[in-house]
Amino acid sequence: MEKLAEYNFTDNFETTDQMVQDFKDKGYLLVRNLFDKDEVEKFIKAMTDSDAFYKNAYVLLGGEVYHYHSKYMLKDAKITAPHYWHQDYGYWYNCGNLYPDMMTVWVALDKCTKENSCLEILSGSNNCGRIEHHPHDGQIVAQKSRVDVIREKCPHIYAEMNPGDALFFHCNTLHHSSANRSNLRRWAYIMCYNKATNNPTFAHHHAQYTPIEKVPNSAIKECTNLTDLSGKEFIHPSQNASIAELFAKYSANTT
């Protein structure tokens, strides 16, 4: 089995040439302990411009990045539906992003194991290019026949993580998670970054280029407003025109 491309976060953590090479070759990096216990607890009780994310995304993508979007992934216990194999660029390609200069940072808020549906990735699949996607069971999924062949070539990695660990992966890296049939929930927080030179060609439900105002790594612990949602906007997919248009594009391409 292929060894995980994993690194441990410290106060003087810097993205090294070896990390950049691992990201290019394998399509991911696992950074252990990016957040400590206190920071993880603040995540759960209630993040995106933290310097801990920005500096690494900047180096891995090779230039200025901006925050594209964020979301919580709240997979509770006994959730029997899987999240099928896909690439994030499988979605974002149809959102006016001309280049795959994008990445996701997947932060574990709970312990993530095979038992409770940890993220699974195909190491090196980012080098296979964008795969055709289509609607299936309410999801946009990668073409199964091609994924099956890639699975024979690319090592299958189970990204088992502790709270505070962060997985950085390329937008063309194939990933999925299985059903969570255990009694343990599996919560995570996801931040997605786009390169500044890859500003989408049209407005949609994710952000256009907006410069990041970086904050220090201590900002999460210093935050005291954990529950006030005043001024925050939430999108329901069924009521958002650009999301509906995205699904319509996929449906039109598969009929």
From TrEMBL:
Cofactor requirements of the protein: Fe cation
Pfam families with a match to the protein in the record: PhyH (PF05721)
Gene3D superfamilies: q2cbj1_9rhob like domain (2.60.120.620)
Protein name: Phytanoyl-CoA dioxygenase family protein
